[in-house]
């Protein structure tokens, strides 16, 4: 009884703790306030990066891991229908558009050197990765049209509308197989992974959408192609930035997009490194399950990311809403939260030293499963 009560209290606490999603966008005006108050504008332009990749990892380990999974029979149906959780994700669309144009205004008007400008672009790109892409990812997996459209528009706000098509129809079908460009191989560095991921995922989105349209008897070159709409919205935003601030405004939009979708691909690298679905006797791969993605159950980062780190459960059950995703002890576990792992992935020798033994241990006795680059 006490255990059930404790779980209920924890779920209630987490419900409102998801409001932490407003913190990353607020880091940008906080940075501006700091440099206007203290000085050192070029240094404080990097403040959001310091917070995300420095402060959050420390508190991840201080606060610890999430101890609860919602009860499938009692809590999951109720939580899944609560409008609060859905509204929170939908509100991220106007929130990100507002913070993006605010960041563009600061980029154009603040007295920053090129170093400070780079820091500011990386900062808004990181916010875009957390809000536009992460929340967009949550929404495109849901059936209601309003969530589908909000997810697509969020992704288009960082010029990655193709993710809406490729991720659902490509990545979730081929995850942890050699054909998936978003599944990193054992021994593959991040810098080997990224160029292939950028190109393949862009092209594959168009191929998948063309296939869908031809199957319905339509030409891929028509208004029915949803990618046309997503990229048109990206162009509209770029044109708006250009109208407001000239060619530097277009540069701002392109750069914040690049840093945002690059963060997405780094996360893809982290989430699937070295894991593979076994090939069956009939030549097909086993069904995606909780053992085909790295899991991380650190509470604080999961609250910031709407439980994206419970990625194993997401791949096994893609339509589960973020508030009811579960932790599985049998899933392969990352040694820290995503913020730490992103920094580690940027340093290949460190990444291999930490992660290769974990991959090898996971496939102990089945070393033939290790498919290196």
From TrEMBL:
GO MF assignments: metal ion binding; monooxygenase activity
Transmembrane segments: 16-35, 41-63, 84-108, 114-135, 227-245
Entry membrane topology: Multi-pass membrane protein
One CC-aspect GO term: plasma membrane
Designated name of the protein: Alkane 1-monooxygenase
Sorted UniProt keywords: Cell inner membrane, Cell membrane, Iron, Membrane, Metal-binding, Monooxygenase, Oxidoreductase, Transmembrane, Transmembrane helix
Keyword Lipid biosynthesis annotated: no
Family label: Belongs to the fatty acid desaturase type 1 family. AlkB subfamily.
InterPro entries, alphabetized: AlkB/XylM, FA_desaturase_dom
One BP annotation, GO: lipid metabolic process
Subcellular localization: Cell inner membrane
Primary location group: membrane
Fatty acid desaturase domain segment(s): 113-341
Source organism per UniProt: Thalassolituus pacificus
């Amino acid at each position: 009884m006490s255990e059930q009560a404790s779980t209920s209290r924890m779920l209630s606490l987490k419900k409102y703790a998801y409001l932490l999603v407003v913190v990353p966008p607020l880091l940008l005006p906080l940075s501006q306030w700091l440099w206007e108050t203290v000085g050192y504008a070029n240094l404080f332009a990097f403040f959001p990066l310091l917070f995300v990749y420095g402060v959050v990892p420390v508190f991840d380990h201080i606060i610890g891991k999430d101890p609860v999974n919602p009860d499938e029979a009692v809590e999951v149906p109720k939580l899944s229908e609560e409008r609060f959780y859905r509204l929170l994700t939908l509100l991220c669309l106007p929130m990100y558009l507002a913070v993006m144009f605010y960041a563009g205004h600061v980029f154009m008007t603040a007295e920053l050197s090129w170093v400070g400008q780079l820091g500011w672009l990386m900062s808004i790109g990181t916010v875009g990765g957390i809000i536009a892409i992460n929340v967009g990812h949550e929404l495109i997996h849901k059936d209601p049209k309003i969530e589908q459209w909000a997810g697509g528009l969020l992704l288009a706000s960082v010029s990655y509308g193709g993710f809406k098509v490729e991720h659902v129809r490509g990545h979730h079908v081929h995850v942890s197989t050699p054909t998936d460009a978003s599944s990193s191989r054992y021994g593959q560095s991040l810098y080997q992974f990224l160029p292939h991921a950028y190109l393949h995922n862009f092209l594959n989105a168009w191929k998948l959408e063309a296939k869908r349209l031809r199957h319905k008897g339509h030409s891929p070159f028509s208004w029915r192609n949803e990618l046309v709409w997503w990229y048109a919205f990206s162009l509209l935003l770029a044109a708006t930035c250009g109208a407001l601030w000239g060619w530097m405004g277009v540069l701002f939009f392109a750069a914040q997009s690049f840093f945002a979708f690059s963060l997405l691909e780094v996360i893809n690298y982290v989430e699937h490194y070295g894991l593979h679905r076994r090939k069956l006797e009939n030549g097909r791969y086993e069904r995606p399950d909780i053992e085909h993605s790295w899991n991380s159950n650190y509470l604080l980062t999961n609250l910031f990311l709407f439980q994206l780190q419970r990625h194993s459960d997401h791949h096994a059950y893609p339509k589960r809403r973020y508030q009811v995703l579960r932790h599985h002890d049998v899933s392969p576990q990352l040694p820290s939260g995503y913020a730490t792992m992103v920094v580690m992935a940027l340093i290949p020798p460190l990444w291999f030293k930490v992660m290769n033994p974990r991959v090898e241990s996971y496939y102990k006795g089945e070393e033939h499963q290790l498919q290196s680059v």
